[in-house]
Design goal:
alpha+beta; Jelly Rolls; five-stranded mixed β-sheet
Amino acid sequence: MAGVTPVTEVAGRPEALDQALERLRLEGAIFMRAEYSESWTLEGQGGPMLAAMMHPGAERLVLFHVIASGRCWVALPGGERYWASAGEVIILPYGDEFMMGGVEAATPVHITSVVPMPPWTEMPVIRYGGGGDRTDVVCGCLHSEDPLFDPGRAAFPPAFVVRPADGPARSWFDASIAYALEESSGKARSRRSTRLPELLVTEALRMHLATAPAVERGWIVGLRDPLLGPTMAAIHAAPERRWTVDDLAAEAGASRSRLDARFREVLGRSPIRYLNEWRMHVAQDLLATTDTTIAAIAHRVGYDAEEAFSRAFKRAHGRSPALWRTARAPGEVRP
């Protein structure tokens, strides 16, 4: 998905992050509305089973829960609770299995005893709980093969809550939540596939990254790092360039040994390995969203020969570019 106007700015150097988010491809839908009343707790949500049902072939999904009214929490098994109130959004970027509950304590009930198993002929509207204070939730999921959602990169915590501050971001969020509630309560109540989930989650990612606490390692640290940030931005902007470590070190104003050490310390990989991984990500995006020829894509990501590109792509993704594109669901490729 491209062209989302940011309403916040990441501290430090935003170029690499903006480039990554602008290239972000998300396929999303609002799939369920829930009306929970105190007291209630549901377990067994999310995980690989939901991913397979909602998007066949997917190993994981990005899950989000828009809190339209009330207050609730989510927690991974054995983990801390993340609380959210009306006007806030809970994001589970890796789609892990989780529990969800209200303010009052309740014995957990498995989600399958409350929600019918898909496929659904209409959007489920779940009403569950003890009849007390109500919490309304709009549930959605998104699929993305972007490396941003690779758990191994640890770009995000397994769950987080976005709380926009007063101002344009708050107004935009409030309007989006109101629209999501309206979409999920329409008479047809069919599973809706609009751009709202992508817009909402992409903006939530911007907001989270703008205020996330500092950590020592990971992709986001690299984007903010005064040494790595310019280098990553240069790679993202021109993956087709014949980069050498010396070239990348010049972008950062550092020695090649210092740059290499910093890449390994923060990102766990060498500069050239990061370059090659980014090239494969760009190629995957072009294969999925355009009808550009494989030869042209090879040149776009720095390969003179289509054969060499195909071998590199197969090493990265387990199949040739042609087979990977063919395996995509019909109708996903667009000019």
